[in-house]
Task: structure prediction
Amino acid sequence: MKRIMVVDDAAFMRMSLKMMLEKNGYQVVGEAENGKVAVQKAKKLNPDIITMDITMPEMDGITALKTLKEVGCKSKIIIISALGQESHVREAMILGANNFIVKPYKEPHVMEILSKL
Amino acid sequence: MSGNTERDPMLEMYIFESNQLLEQLEQVILSSEKSIVSEESINEIFRIMHTIKGNSAMMLFNNIATLAHALEDLFDFLRQGEFKDVDSEKLIDRVFSVVDFIKGELFKIEDEKEADADPEVLMQHIKEYLLDLKENNTEGETNHEKKQSNYPEKQQYYISSSKSSGNKIEKHIQDICINYKAVIYFEEACQMENMRAYTVVRSINEIAMNVQFIPADILENDKSSEVIKKEGFTLLFKTDVSEEALDKIFQNTVFLKEYELMRLPNECDIYTYKPKLEILLEDSSLELQEVNTKCNDFNSSASSKMTKQSSINVKVNKLDMLMDLVGELVISEAMVTQNPELQGLNLDNFNKAARQLHKITNDLQDVVMSIRMVPLSLTFQKMNRLVRDMSKKINKEVELKIIGEETEVDKNIIENISDPLMHLIRNAMDHGIESSEKRVQNHKPKKGKIILQAKNSGGDVLIIVKDDGQGLSKEKIINKAFEKGLIDKEPKEMTDKEIYSLIFLPGFSTNEEITEYSGRGVGMDVVTKNIERIKGKISVDSIAGQGTTITIKIPLTLAIIEGMIISVGGSTYTIPIVSIRESFRPKEEEIIVDLQGNEMILIRGQSYPIVRIHERYHVNTKIKKISEGILIMVECDEGSICIFADTLLGEQQVVVKPLPKYVNASKSLSGCTLLGDGSISLILDVAGLIYEYKQKGRDDE
Result:
């Protein structure tokens, strides 16, 4: 079973993703409400996949992605972006994000992206 | 515990978080209102709106999502430039109207109604504001542009060309490689096709050489996604990987609709094939795409200042449950340690252990209580907004001074205090504070002042709303009360306080005119009811021409109190320790009896009335002689009396339970409690007893 960490500052989003992932047979091993926490937890949990929101307090998703890549984190990283954040998505993809999801997302799309990692 | 109807947990979370975010937003604005909107708060508001937008779009509340998006755009613009002349007043109005809109919609959603309000007008306002901002701040605009044009120099990324380039076996591979052309089409729901295409480029890069693609500017130009939508995404590459393997890679593309893969003539090298392609490819050399990306450190250091304490959200009903359990624990502890079966036994070790148990239950109770304690600051801050909005609408200059907002009260109280406070402040602004002209005439400062204060006083919290307005007019109140048939006494016999208290009666409103904010006639008695629900008391004081002070007194904790258990006949009663001043065994000769037969006792030169519990509650007891029983002096704001009981049984923590409905609610009982031996004890309401006594005294006259 794939182990996933969900990073988003909105508790609602974390919950919605978590429910969707667990329904589809993924294991959500951790949650983080900002990039800083995400970086700390990623080290400890070493998840297979990290879903990463972009706009967050303390440390945004892009910086977190950069940091994770710098410390050699092996987790696959999926950026969760809102519409209109194209430039951030681009930056994230260049920095090595594995894929991205656009909010508001639909369940089959998320599942497709995850299955094709 | 309140009956909780089960709702979709997602919806519940959505409502909960949205409300929390809005509250946070109001907090940010109110704390920054006086100064110009700071960078920090702009970032925070942007983020909050961004989150609300995202959450709402997920829940398909599109009107909320679009409105939040509009505001997000506005703040996104604001945080990118440095604007000098931001009309923060107007900006704050915009934000507040959005907050109100969303709150209204959330309310509907909570009520299981359709969230269907049209945000068009508000959207228009925001768009106009943004337009104004863009026009009036040409300086800001250039600044903005400068930032944008800055970024190509900042950092550069390269897509490494094929992995094997520079490899020593490259030459060999070259020979067995086949040239391919692939065209990929994406599904319609795809979004950001250029970035999806980029993922394909990345995976092809792993296994191929000389990768080129059309459109070539997928990384620099978001418009390229339009091209991809129409014409597909074309890839040219050279690889030795089998077609099945290629198929796997392409099939693994997210949102792939279909793709075409064709071999190019083998001898035809991509270099030579290039000219045959459209002009698009012309200047793209083998170095491939050079990508410039803005390395945007939008997470400025400013936001790191706003570190939040780590905390979790707990449902209030869980806390209620915990509180109930602690209550039960306190009772059980008493049941064990004061078990009648233990009487007369020599139990040194048991007593030691019991003391330890008592200490721990005590600590536990303190902790549980403190969990429920919340500072009043949020509630008080809300009043700031109210005063601000209202002073604009009714055109009175009013300043709100907040004192002691850090005072903590039970969460339950917070929930019930907000509405009454709002009402009181509205009243003060509407009826209390005079118009500016009138104030100047009366030699008062032009600006009215309302003080909202909270402080601890013994076991109570006092919340005081004080204005420096015209004060209450006794005459008007009396006339009005007569008109409505609310008094049946001679006004001359009434004290000032009693007259003022008339305004709390149902159906009373002194202002003839009804305004938008107050004076609908249902006001004050609703306030009283709300306050009574949390066992609070409300009182008014007023000086004509100088202002009105309304004091709300709320018991600090609702559930567990220190009580003195007394016995009268076969029953036990509990008196809250906080109201006891002393207890003593009186002598027969100290008692004075007045003409009506009321007993009094003279202590240190002052006489105190005596209330015999056995008479008051018609309990049979053998102890009727004053020298055989005990007197307990209790006090409240209204005065002091001495309660006569058979004997004191001891001090104990008791859990206050409401009186069952079938017991005729009496003014002088505040509840009941379960004692250690399983018997029930009634809790005396000291203030009620004193009030009762005074009433009786007046009736006798």
